Each structure stands twice: as structure tokens, then as C-alpha cells.
Amino acid sequence: MAEKNKLTDAQIEQDKTNSIMNTIAERAGYYRHNLDKFCYDYLGITNLKWFQKILLWMMNEYDNFLGLACRGLG
């Protein structure tokens, strides 16, 4: 009875691969929706201003985006 429940090496490897791919998919989805957190966590940019977070969100959300800026903004 116990021998029927044993997994083969290929099945164990496939389970590990599926687990890793699911984790990657969850993290990718999270960071795609939260670009400001991606900049903070992955890129190490810790000093984003509030308007920069809004600009990142707008660039991600809309296909057509025009951001006009000048010196001294923020």
C-alpha cells in the first residue's frame, strides 16, 4: 500500500518545477500591478516622490501617455 503512494524522481522534479513557476507567476503579477514597489524592492530606488509613483502607474495603465515635466518638479 505504501509503495503506491511513492513518487518517482520525475514526478518530484515536475512538482518542484511547477511550484517555482507558480511562485514566479504570482510575483510577476504583483509587481506588474505595483510598479512603485518593484522600483523599491528590485531596483533599490527608495526615494520616489508621490507624483513619480502616479506617473509610473499611469504609464503602466494607459497605452497613450504623455508626461510633460520641467526642471525643479518635486
Quick take:
By secondary structure, the chain is an all-alpha fold.
Topology, element by element:
Blueprint: H1 9-33, H2 35-43, H3 50-61
Largest sheet: none
Give me the number of helical elements: 3
Radius of gyration: 21 Å
What overall geometry do the principal axes of the alpha carbons give? elongated
Helix/strand order, N-terminal first: HHH
Kindly describe this structure:
This protein has 74 residues and is an all-alpha fold. The chain has one domain. It has helices at 9-33, 35-43, 50-61. The longest helix has 25 residues, at 9-33. The protein is elongated, with a radius of gyration of 21 Å. 0% of the residues are buried.
What attributes does this structure have?
about 70 residues; mainly alpha
